[in-house]
Amino acid sequence: MDVLLYNHGGSDTDVGTGQGGTEDPKGAYMPNSNEIRRLGAKWETGTGWPKRLEWIEIEGLRGWTRQRFDLRFPIMAVVGENGVGKSTVIQSAAAIYKAPRKTRFASDFFPDTTWEEIKNASIRYSVLEGGKRTEGSIRKPGERWRGNPKRPDRTVVYIDLSRIQPVSARLGYTRLVKSHHEEVSATLFDKYRLERFSQIMGRTYDLAKIALTKAHPTRTVPVLIQEGNRYSGFHQGAGETTIAELLETELPKYSIVLIDEIESSLHPRSQRRLIRDLADKCREGELQVILTTHSPYVLAELPPQARAYIMQIGHMREIIYGVSPEFAMTKMDDVAQPECDLYVEDPRAKVMVTEILVQHGIELVQRCQIIPYGAASVGQSLGQMVNRKCFPRPTRVFLDGDQASSVGCVNLPGDDAPERVVFDFLKGNNWQGIAERVGRQFAKVADACARAMALTDHHDWIGDAATQLTLSSDILWQAMCAEWAKNLPKEEANKVLQPIEDALIGLQHISVLTAGSAPLAPQEPMAETALPASKAAMKKSSSSAILPLFERLSPVPEE
């Protein structure tokens, strides 16, 4: 079995127009690409992949302290800030295998140097081969690594960061530019590979090949013909060279493919297409892939179980699975400077919380950053971290009202999903205020919303009603949440506001806000279940003023 590692660097940050997977409002993944759907369907059968790496546990290397990385999908994306240990994961995966061709050892990736000496280090692993599960380890208790002879067999093909260098900058390649160094051989891309190359790059190529000249027997150069123009790697874009050399590499059946910063030099559409191409190869060859990335476009193509965020807080690391692309990008960006981080399940919960703050705690709006995290299980993991005081600044985690109480988390008002809570109240209030907010006739608004509620899946209500009203779903949802929050009783709003205020003044626990309850002791589990908002208790506002929706919130991504 083969292990291949591609190592790129850097990423484009411009906005792509390619379609990736999306999260529904409950964090469920809805892939848009057939390639990912087919791969997931085959993986879920439990058949195939006769050789599979299940997990890696790393200790004593670059600050790792026995954290375990689980491979929960054929393609696993490792995301996080620079220096948190993403490359350590893929290097450890490569080091646990013996290879028929070129074997690499842990000492190749984690050498002793003048500045550091590796001791008391280990890489534990679990592999499943032919239905038999085997656990093993390679370790360095002293001066030498031990356990190498007992490693499982798997071919390891390692392609490192040198591959992203421009051809003209590679060592020894300047000799090849002389015109008298003739081409002596070339490996032509067959029709299938040429079509893959054209698809990923988004333009049609007439020819692609990897050529050798008289100057050197192993230094290859990619050569392309596009619209009748021939040009070599000395004149190609970095992305063209990267993909050409990537596709030229064989991916043997049952390989494990290790890719560092896969998005290097590629614009967003190419990033998405590369993941889809990789998914096809993964399914056909029953490959496993571990890749690192900083790209939201790569993450958006993959299902939540394929995403693992490494968070480093002080000297500690946490691996959080199932994160949303927005969560990952927010954690890696420092543009905003809020005092308090608020984590919510999805963009709809984000709008709901924002409207509560606007209506009942306007002074908190600019002090808080609201981050959708994806599946409820991610929120529960974050709540555990809040409970252990892992975050460097004030943090609160909110679950939707239909979720069970969980340590370190606060439930949003209403004992149901946000859509049901808001729609049920507004229906009981005869849809008052919505028509004015969205600029549509009252009768049309009432009819569209009532018809939408007849749908079985409440996640579809907003989109269906917005379509009938010729609105974007984020505009309609924002208007509905604003009207709902305006009528939310203060005691219900306080179940959101009080934990935030407590966090901002340094309280580490979450107070229980129901009447007559005492606060939890700081060491007790931090959980709160918000009581359902009573429709009868919601007061109808006498004000008919239209709130400046577009000045207060950034748009929620279109469904």
Content of β-strand = 15-25%
Give the number of domains: 3
User: Could you say which overall geometry the principal axes of the C-alpha atoms support?
Assistant: globular
Radius of gyration: 27 Å
The mean pLDDT is 81
Q: Count the E strands.
A: 22
- Given the helix and strand composition, which structural class is it? alpha/beta
Q: Multimeric state of these chains?
A: single chain
Please state how the strands of the largest beta sheet are arranged side by side. Answer: 9-1-14-15-6-16-17
Low-confidence stretches: 8-18, 24-28, 508-559
Condensed summary:
The chain is of the alpha/beta class.
Topology:
Layout: E1 2-7, E2 22-23, E3 29-30, H1 34-44, E4 51-59, E5 65-70, E6 75-79, H2 86-95, H3 106-109, E7 121-129, E8 132-140, E9 155-158, E10 183-188, H4 191-201, E11 207-213, E12 216-226, E13 229-232, H5 238-248, E14 256-260, H6 268-285, E15 288-293, H7 296-301, E16 307-313, E17 316-321, H8 325-331, E18 340-344, H9 347-360, E19 368-372, H10 376-387, E20 395-399, E21 409-411, H11 418-428, H12 434-438, H13 442-452, H14 461-468, H15 473-486, H16 490-504, E22 527-528, H17 549-552
Helix pairs in contact: 1-6, 4-5, 4-6, 9-15, 9-16, 11-15, 13-14, 14-15
Notes on the protein architecture:
- This protein has 559 residues and is α/β, with parallel strands linked by helices.
- It has 3 domains: 165 residues, Rossmann fold (3-Layer(aba) Sandwich), CATH 3.40.50; 81 residues, no CATH class; 217 residues, no CATH class.
- It is 31% helix and 22% strand.
- It has 17 helices and 22 strands.
- The strands form 5 sheets. It has a 7-stranded mixed sheet with strand order 9-1-14-15-6-16-17, sandwiched between helices.
- It is globular, with a radius of gyration of 27 Å.
- The two termini are 41 Å apart.
- 44% of the residues are buried.
- The C terminus is likely disordered.
